[in-house]
């Protein structure tokens, strides 16, 4: 139900338009296909994915001898799930360790990174894990306080230094501290000012290096937060971060705020990085593990 509610905007626009289409045409023909194609493009599924989907849809419709437009919906859902699940075998679950798991968060300011860290910390706490946060965004005014607030709200400690200090030093402290208190998870925030791309990327690489030196094998996940409402812009950001650091998963935020939920599929096929979580609201428990089946069927629910 979380999925259905969170995807309401995408769902209502998508589902009602598909229903209109089905009612309008009744018989599957070329005009129907063309309008359907347009609809999928509007939902930000992405050009290539839509083309692929349409080709397979035509094939399936012929193979199964589907004549009635009302039968096309289930074929669409099946194909969308297939497209998502195709490609490299990448787990949607986090790579959790026996002892300390370090998760590094990256992403541009405003995408919902801090909120997601808070939500994820809450999730881990609910699972009975002990969590520490690292305030690695020492650049943006207010970032440290904001993370601190989330720490208080969720009830976990935040390792921080003064604004303007070296983020790598914060990570050094945070790893030591998480190790000494035998924490299960350390979640690290990082700066997200894309205006100075080279500096940002250097900083991320340094942070990554320091974490790996203090705890070999860490970070175990590098999660990129992307704002679903920014559409194709999110894809561009992902390309940039992918070049700079080894992104292991994506958290797609603000899916509740857009009618273009098809972006999940575009991300998957364009970047080949698994979507691990989706943000479906501003509250603590509005973070859901991404499940392609639930997601796609949520669109048609
Ligand atoms: P940051 O700059 O990337 O750390 O972004 P913030 O965590 O400060 O979030 C920016 C804004 O987006 C805040 O107002 C959040 O409440 C909001 N936000 C974050 N995630 C979601 C989400 O999944 N859904 C909605 N509707 N709002 C979100």
UniProtKB/TrEMBL annotation:
| InterPro entries reported for this sequence | AAA+_ATPase, P-loop_NTPase, Signal_recog_particl_SRP54_hlx, SR_rcpt_FtsY, SRP/SRP_N, SRP54_GTPase_dom, SRP54_N_sf
- Major place of localization? membrane
SUPFAM superfamilies on file? Domain of the SRP/SRP receptor G-proteins, P-loop containing nucleoside triphosphate hydrolases
Enzyme Commission number:
3.6.5.4
Enzyme class, first EC level, given as a word: hydrolase
Question: Where does the UniProt annotation locate this protein?
Answer: Cell membrane; Cytoplasm
- Which reaction does this enzyme catalyse, per its entry? GTP + H2O = GDP + phosphate + H(+)
Alphabetical GO biological process terms: SRP-dependent cotranslational protein targeting to membrane
Quaternary context: Part of the signal recognition particle protein translocation system, which is composed of SRP and FtsY.
Q: What is this protein identified as?
A: Signal recognition particle receptor FtsY
Q: Which organism is it from?
A: Planococcus lenghuensis
């Amino acid at each position: 139900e979380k999925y259905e509610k969170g995807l309401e905007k995408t769902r209502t626009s998508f589902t009602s338009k598909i229903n209109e289409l089905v009612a309008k045409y009744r018989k599957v023909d070329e005009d129907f296909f063309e309008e359907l194609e347009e609809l999928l493009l509007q939902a930000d599924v992405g050009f290539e994915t839509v083309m692929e989907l349409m080709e397979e849809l035509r094939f399936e419709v012929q193979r199964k001898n589907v004549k009635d437009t009302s039968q096309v919906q289930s074929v669409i859902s099946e194909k969308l799930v297939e497209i998502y699940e195709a490609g490299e075998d990448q787990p949607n679950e986090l790579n959790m360790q026996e002892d300390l798991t370090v998760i590094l968060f990256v992403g541009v300011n405003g995408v919902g990174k801090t909120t997601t860290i808070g939500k994820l910390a809450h999730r881990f706490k609910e699972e009975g894990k002990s969590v520490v946060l690292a305030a690695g965004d020492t650049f943006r005014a207010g970032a440290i306080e904001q993370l601190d607030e989330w720490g208080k709200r969720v009830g976990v400690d935040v390792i921080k230094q003064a604004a303007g200090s070296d983020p790598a030093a914060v990570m050094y402290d945070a790893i030591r501290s998480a190790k000494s208190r035998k924490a299960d998870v350390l979640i690290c925030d990082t700066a997200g000012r894309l205006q100075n791309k080279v500096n940002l990327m250097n900083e991320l690489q340094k942070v990554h290096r320091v974490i790996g030196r203090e705890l070999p094998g860490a970070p175990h996940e590098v999660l990129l937060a992307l704002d679903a409402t920014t559409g194709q812009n999110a894809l561009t950001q992902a390309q940039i971060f992918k070049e700079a650091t080894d992104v292991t998963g994506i958290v797609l935020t603000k899916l509740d705020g857009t009618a273009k939920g098809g972006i999940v599929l575009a991300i998957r096929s364009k970047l080949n990085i698994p979507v691990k979580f989706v943000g479906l609201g501003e509250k603590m428990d509005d973070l859901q593990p991404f499940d392609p089946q639930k997601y796609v069927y949520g669109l048609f629910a």
